[in-house]
Every structure is written in structure tokens, then in C-alpha cells.
Amino acid sequence: MSFKESYNKIININNKKGNALKYIVCLVIVILAVTGIIIYFSNFNKNEENNTNIVEDNNEITEQKEDIYASASNLPVASYSISLSDQSDIAPKFISPIGLDIVKEDSDCIAVVKLNKILYYTNYSEKVNQYTQVPLTASDVTIEKVFKGNLADSFEMLSIGGIISIKDYEKACQPEQIKKHGFDKMDEKEKETTYIEIKSTMTIGLPKLENDKYYLVYLKYNNNFDKYQVIDKFIYEYDINNDTIKNTDTNEWIKFEYN
Length: 259
Description:
The strands form 2 sheets. The protein has a 5-stranded mixed barrel. Strands 1-6-5 form a 3-stranded mixed beta sheet. Helices cover 36% and strands 32% of the residues. By secondary structure, the chain is an alpha+beta fold.
């Protein structure tokens, strides 16, 4: 065999080896690329699933919040009322604040407020773990005028009266009162779903609380609830344009001047 033939043979062998090596390298690249694509789309699908779960969880949380807010905005309606006083005990309905210096002095704050919304009713103080027979109404109010004291522009105000379930009301009752009203013959479900309005000498003659109306209020801080509360019956519907208060006995408007 000549030198030239031997050389060409060696070259052919090297070429074949080179081609084989190139083929192997290309095959490895293709495998790695395919594997990378599979891993990418696998992770992408997992992320999509996770994002979907997050959205679903957020939707569930949002729905739960909406349910809470919806239930909070739907105030209970009384099936009937219970009076805590005999007719002989009923005090005069309307008490004018004009000239009552003792009430003025006893008040922490005196103001005209705009009632934005009635929030809820309650007869329970968590702070002292105590139920009362006469419930309180909690309202969101905004300050319009301040005659005495310092108040935030808006706050949660308490006033006497409200509607509560029989279940909550009987927690403040004596055993004989429970029997008198027949609560002992009711099952727990009925007590939870039956609401009553509690009337007393302190609730008779009070103005009806309505959204977007103005009220003159004499307030004192209630430590059991950590909120300002109207003193007894000293809350009056107020005409913001004429500075007058409404007499709930006669429906007449009386000029109010703070001095």
C-alpha cells in the first residue's frame, strides 16, 4: 500500500469518527433541549395551578368578607316587644335639655352628629363579661357641631334601645322572668332566631334613629364598652339649617341655643 492510500484511509477513519462524535453531540443537545422544554412546561403548569389556587383562595376570602359585611349590615327585625315597666312607672316622654345645667355639667361632650349608619345592637359587654336587659344601639356618626368637649371627626356612638335575640336577652334575666315570658318552653334554635325589642322608661319618647339625619347628643364615656354613649334620653332630632330640636310629644320644633 502506498503512502497516499494509507493517508487517505486514515483520513476517512477520522472523518467517520468525527461524524459519529458530531452525531452524539447533536443527540445529546437535542435530548437536553427536549428535557428542558418538558421541565419548563411542567413548572409552568404547576405555577398556573398554584396561581389558580391562590385566586380561588382569595375569592373565597373575599366571599367570606362579603358575607360578614352583609350580615353586619342586615339589622334584625323584632317579632314583638317586651316592656320592662308598668304604665304607672312610665316617665314623661320628652325631656327638653334647655336649661338643664346639671346634664350639661355631667356630659363629657355635647354635639350635633350626623348618623351615617346603625351598625348593630348589643346587650353584652365583653370587657366586664356582663349582659344587660336593655340593649344598646351602636351607630357610626360624623361630627357636625361641637358645643362641649373634644371628639374625633367620626366615631362609634352608643345609645339606649335596640333589638336583640331572646337567647341574648334571657342571659340578663332571672329564672322567674324566663318562665314569665315562656322562654323555658322554647328550644335553642327558636331563641337564636327570634328577636325582640326591649322597651323601658328610658326608651319611651326617644327619636327614631335614621341614616343621614342629624341629632343633638349629650355624651358620656362608657368605660365598659370603651365608647361614648348618649346620657339616658338626651338625644334629639336636630334641624341643621334652623338649629332646632324636635319635641317627640308634639312634633313641634324648638329653637336650641347652647349657652
